[in-house]
Amino acid sequence: MKFPLGPILVRNVEDATVRKLRRRAERRGRTMNEEVCQILRNAVQDEDRPFTELAVATRPGRVARRRFVRKPRDSKVKQTNAR
Questions:
Q1: 16-26 burial, b for 16+ CB within 10 Å, e for fewer?
Q2: Cα–Cα distance between 76 and 27 in angstroms, integer?
Q3: How do residues 28-82 score in pLDDT, each as one tens digit?
Q4: How far, in Å, are 25, 37, 42 from residue 18 at the CA level?
Q5: Which of 9, 1, 5, 12 is nearest to 33 (CA)?
Q6: What is the maximal distance between C-alpha atoms in the chain?
Q7: DSSP secondary-structure letter at 29?
Q8: Phi and psi of 37, rounded to 5°?
Q9: Could you tell me the residue ranges of all domains in the chain?
């Protein structure tokens, strides 16, 4: 059973941000309250996933590319230090 926890009050939100939220909600056929709730849900939905998993999910190939580039660089450093 779900129990509502009560309102959250956010202070000092810039006027431009409020206007953008209102337009976004209108485009999606939601009230501003529903839109803000959905944004908050999306923001916390993946909080338990490991960071590397999130990085791959949001920017595919990014983590793999870093590993690929790093290996040759690390081997050059080892060669230089061995001299």
A1: eeeeeeeeebe
A2: 53
A3: 999 999 999 999 888 888 777 776 666 666 665 555 555 555 555 666 666 666 6
A4: 10, 14, 19
A5: 9
A6: 68
A7: T
A8: -60, -40
A9: 15-82
